[in-house]
Amino acid sequence: MVRTLGLTQLTMIGIGAIIGAGIFSLAAAVARDVAGPAVLVSFLVAGAASLCAAFAYAEFAGMVPKAGSSYTYCAAVLGEIVGWIVGWDLLLEYTAIVAVVAIGMSGYLGFLLAAVGIHLPAWALGAPGTGAGHRVDLLAVAICLGVAWLLTRGTRTSARVETVLTVVKIAIVLLVIVVGFTKVKTGNLHPFAPFGLGGAFTGAATVFFAVFGYDALSTAAEESLQARRKLPKAMMLSLAVSMVLYVLVCVVLTGMQHYTEINPESGISSAFRSVGMGGLANVIAVGAVIGIVTVTFSFMMAAARLWYALSRDGLMPAWFGAIHPRRKVPHRATWLIGAVSAVLAGLLPINAVAELTNIGVLLAFVVVSASVLVLRYRKPDLKRGFRCPGMPVVPVLGMVFSVWLMSFLQWQTWVRLGGWLVVGLLLYATYGYRRTRRVMPGGSVDLDALNEMPDSDDVPGSGDSSPVAAG
Q: Which of 55, 76, 168, 439 meets the CB 3.0–4.6 Å disulfide criterion with 445?
């Protein structure tokens, strides 16, 4: 692959992954059904847990400038089998996240189409069981396939589109905050926690996937300039900006409209329309569509790069990880993920898919936090572009937070995750274990060689226009 991504583009990919369905769709659903105005607490708790894990991810990103994210980190420290479990887990979770945000976007697209007098037939309006006559969420399917097409155009082109769309999204979110605060009624914020603190904590477990998009950055390590230095910075910047915007939007949403009246499908636009600002509601719906496109882009890109890393290391067939000879992207993996996410988005309700993504992400956070703790004591002298602060407290808090949030998820979600992991272990035993011994007998990352592993600064001719191959 080609190193073309600088700090600005990396930060925009991170913000693009974090800000999207969480603000425009999931916040409304959680506020109405689970937390009330205390959805603000849900995001703060999820953000605190995410920050602890973000420090761990940043330390690894500053050591290992390779694609694969959690899979690569955990395989290097805790062994190949643990790395495979995490990688197989995240392959499903990233794909499911694409489906979740596509479902969230379809609600706003439907809002816009209805505003101009276009009404889709009932069978195309949602997954079975989500409404009368619903058979498939046709708009969500189209979104998944459209983003897959964009990603196969090449990293430079798709990253430029992502940057422009993210800037537009941030501008619209700021518009929501500035104008929305003039319409906030404090009476709508009472009772603040109608479902109790338990409801707020349950909400935190549900919205968690909305505050961890920085993980998608680490999968782009082999397409990043100065990856060891810029990836950790981009992770911290993207999370900080996104959390401030999340908190302010939660106040606006629940202050403009009582939580019992919030529309879970197009919450912010419906709230503005309820106070007589229909024109601005349409603008916000456009912003929501743009915003959620960027999330879909970031996580589909992450899933494809993870699949590429697994295939390159022999744990999955090399056919899936093939790089397009001209565009230099894993095109087959991208199209397959687009197709699978389209099926999930078209046929499953948003809450079921959201919980499936969260439990997998939280599991990965537990293992990554443990890995950075182990590695700090096992290899204290390794070159690190970023060092996790507060050792060993912060990684331990990351593990505790993640396990605690997992405890609030439904038992059916645990069963689905267990089934997926069993399939993964069978695949590893029958194919991956033997194949990776031939492809990669020394392991995916040699910890003793990390200090000598070149970053893009060390490669002659590296730069925005230089097709430097990652090694």
A: 76
